[in-house]
Amino acid sequence: METDKLKRIFRQYLLGQTREKETGAIDNWYQSFDNELVNPLSREEEETVRLEIWQRIQPELEKKKVHYLRRNLATAAAVILLLAGGLTYYMVNRSNPAYTEVTTAVGQRKTIQLADGSQLTLNAGSIVRIPKDMREERRLNIVDGEVFFDVKGKPSVPFIVESGPLTTTVLGTSFNVTAYRQVNRMSIAVTEGKVSVQKNGGTAEVLVKDQALTYDRTKNNTTIDAIDKSLLGWREGSMVLNDASFEDMVVLMQKNFGITLTTSQAGVRATRYTTELSTTMDPVKAAEVLAAIHNLKIEVTGHVVIVYE
């Protein structure tokens, strides 16, 4: 095999561009080493490892002055051997994701039981990533949506929920996390026990039973108040709006009823919306009720609902 060809193959392999036969040959070579099992990496850590490996291998591949093919093979092998552990780390995690992603569709609610005995209930339009192995760390990530947690205590392994800028740590409790990506307000509401909530690595706030923390993305501030239990009505099949902006209402109506609300009027957009709707209602009927409560009118075209005064 010529030197230039060897360089090209290794480079294409690292970029995931090799042909099946070449990929198989290199994979078999890696498997000949006695690799140890590794702990799962996060997606960010995988990318960091990949970049570090490439940055350290690339200089060797770019060297123009080469005397003997054997010497090149030895040099490439030495570099790869030094980084084999890290590269295997990346390859294992790429083919075996460290988490399971659970989702709910428009208007769907779902309850799942975790291996540790904890129970999660997902609201409509939610995405949660759950570790495949929760023996050493119980760290979940709410990518989008709302989830109610009933956590079983296990003092040696804290239960951690990441939701955007907020990280909630708990040993055994029940609490609700609202973290829709397109909704301005996020909240953590505790119904039993006690949790610690930290924003972007700052000072942690401790919440006890019947307390709720609300984070305003626009103002970048948090408040702690008595819990509004009506906001937990979604578990019983209700969509609750409590002084919601028009933009937030649009997101929640789409998640729960699959319709898109829009308006061209500044007055409608500036209105704050408070109501409770059964998620079993016909979507258009739900929009009619919402509009009637706020003295507005609607015009329906397919899945789009125009709201006006």
UniProtKB/TrEMBL annotation:
What GO molecular-function term can you cite, just one? sigma factor antagonist activity
Pfam families (UniProt xref): FecR
Gene3D superfamilies documented for this protein? 2.60.120.1440
Q: Taking every annotated instance into account, which residue ranges of this chain make up the domain FecR protein?
A: 101-195
Report the superkingdom from the record.
Bacteria
Q: Which InterPro entries match?
A: FecR, Ferrdict_sens_TM
- Keywords assigned: Membrane, Transmembrane, Transmembrane helix
Q: Where are the transmembrane segments?
A: 73-92
Q: Which PANTHER family match?
A: PERIPLASMIC SIGNAL SENSOR AND SIGMA FACTOR ACTIVATOR FECR-RELATED, PROTEIN FECR
Protein name, per record = FecR family protein
State the organism's lineage. Bacteria, Pseudomonadati, Bacteroidota, Chitinophagia, Chitinophagales
